[in-house]
Each structure stands twice: as C-alpha cells, then as structure tokens.
Structure prediction request, 190 residues.
Amino acid sequence: MLNLVLFGPPGAGKGTQSQKLIEKYNLVHLSTGDILRSEITNGTELGLEAKKLMDQGVLVPDAVVIGMISNKLDSNKDARGFIFDGFPRTVAQAEALDALLASKSTQISGMIALDVEDEELQKRLLLRGKDSGRPDDANPEVIRRRIEEYNNKTAPVANFYKDQGKYHSVNGLGSIDEIFSAICNVADTL
Ligand code: ADP
Prediction:
C-alpha cells in the first residue's frame, strides 16, 4: 500500500495536490477537514460541536478525528492506499494513526511536507475566503489563530516522522504542476 501523509500549514495547497495524487496513484483521499464540513452540512451532533471550534480556528478534539479516520479505514478495506490530508495534526493523532495502520498490517509510507512561508499563506487564505464560503477563511483573526494552532500543535508532527526517517519536504511555491511533479518525485521513491 502507498499511504501518504500530505503535510503543511493551512493554505499550503494540500487539497489541490491531493486531488491530483488520488488520480495518479489511485488512492483514497481522507481529509479530516472535508469530513468535518460534511458532518456540519448534514447537521449531525458531531458537526454542531465541531463547527464551534472550527469557526474559531482551533483544533477539534483528537478522539473525534481519530474515530472518524478509524471508521474511514474500516469502510475502505480494498483501497490501494490513502492520502491523509489535514491529519494527523497533533502528535497524539500521529501515534493513534500508527496504531490503527499497524492493526491492519500496514503503515505510513512517508510524509510529504509542503513548504510555504506565513505571509504567502495569509494571502492565499484571504483570497480563498472570497469564494470558498468557508467562515474560517473569511476572518483574518481566525486565520491567524489557525496558523498559531499549526505552529504550536501541528508543526511537531513533522519531527514524529523525521524520527522514523519518513519525512520529505517539497517547495510549496510555484505552479500547481511544478509542485505536483516535485511531490511525485518523492512519492515514486516510497
Ligand atoms: P486548513 O488546513 O486549510 O485549515 P482543514 O479543512 O484541514 O483546513 O481544517 C479546517 C478546520 O477543521 C481546522 O481549523 C480544525 O478546526 C478542524 N480540523 C481538521 N482536521 C483536524 C484534525 N486532524 N484535528 C483537529 N482538528 C481538525
């Protein structure tokens, strides 16, 4: 199996690159952000709880997203592999993911991190906010908070995979196709 963690701050381009990767490598895309937004759209209890936190730009509890990923792994037993997008976002989530995959006799093949500086991220997110309709993209204070959450809680996840020798970084500036080809160059070695 090819199991990729696509990593990077909000606005780094994980969603865009995931779409291209799932086509090329025939993988199942698991985006915790997308799953949470669909819970919100469906008006589930989980969605209602998550919305309060997402609108403030803070992470939802580990147990919630770990449970969601566990369900998705179970419902995609025949997958050739997965792209984890926006997950794991804390070291606890990364540890839980390792355990879930081990229980299915598989593992993470590698993490590919998109490298983009803070100033560019702020610009991209505000631009995206104009047409994404996402409340958390529309407010500069919420964007700042998301980047802060990323720096405090999510950035350490890179070290978790570095320690396992699975960390790879790619320049996240450039055209979509340039970045995609850099990602594929890494993925093809895994
Ligand atoms: P972005 O990476 O652009 O911020 P996402 O769609 O990945 O967008 O996430 C949006 C929000 O959903 C986050 O700010 C957070 O509140 C919540 N969220 C998504 N994934 C996770 C996760 N793995 N753990 C905790 N919260 C999450």
